[in-house]
Amino acid sequence: MLSSVENTLFHLLSNAQLLSDKIPHISYNFFKDIVDKNASKEAKLRLLKNILQITGWGIVTTVVHGSKIIITIKNIPYGLQAEKDNWDFLVRVILGYLWTIDRYSIRKTKVSKRILIIEYYVDNS
Known about the structure:
This protein is α+β, with helices and mostly antiparallel strands. It has 4 helices and 4 strands, in the order H-H-H-E-E-H-E-E.
């Protein structure tokens, strides 16, 4: 079951850096039972896009360039906390989801105005 939470929680968890290395593993363990193992890469990315949009994270676009996936989220919601907005928790949750496709790693994250751009690449190590 997926439930929507106020996005400030994601910023607070990101700023606290609680178990940040474990977040992708927890996310993967959650999604591996939801995502059809036999689905194509395109279908899995479409499901990710739908999940993010339905739960209010903004307008999501995914682009695949070889072993790289670029996820752009426009109109990403900002939190109401006093601390600076921090997207690390969300970026790592998405990473765990992408592990249902292949063993991706985070290459780069960029925030510009109300747009979050995340680059993931296949980690062949």
